[in-house]
Write a structure and sequence with these properties.
Length: 99
Amino acid sequence: MAIDLKSPAAQQILEKLVKWADVLIVNTPHPARKRLKLEYEDVAKWNPRLIYADVTGFGDKGPDAGSPVSTSLVLGAQRPVVDDARCGRPAHLAGRRQR
């Protein structure tokens, strides 16, 4: 299902869905959540038992907060974890060697 949360009719649909839902997963930057009235305080009044999951790419604080993110950007920014347990060394991020 897709709804345009910028329209008043969509806000009514959202309210009905949130009242029925157990979990709401939101993956929009903080400024957009605020504009669309998707922050926890906005939706919890419709369903105080709601589990609210915020999964933004860069979080709400820091230099990249609010920046849009795509799958390719996330994959390019992450580094694999290297497990050297067989060699007696702890796991570490690739590119940062622990001695």
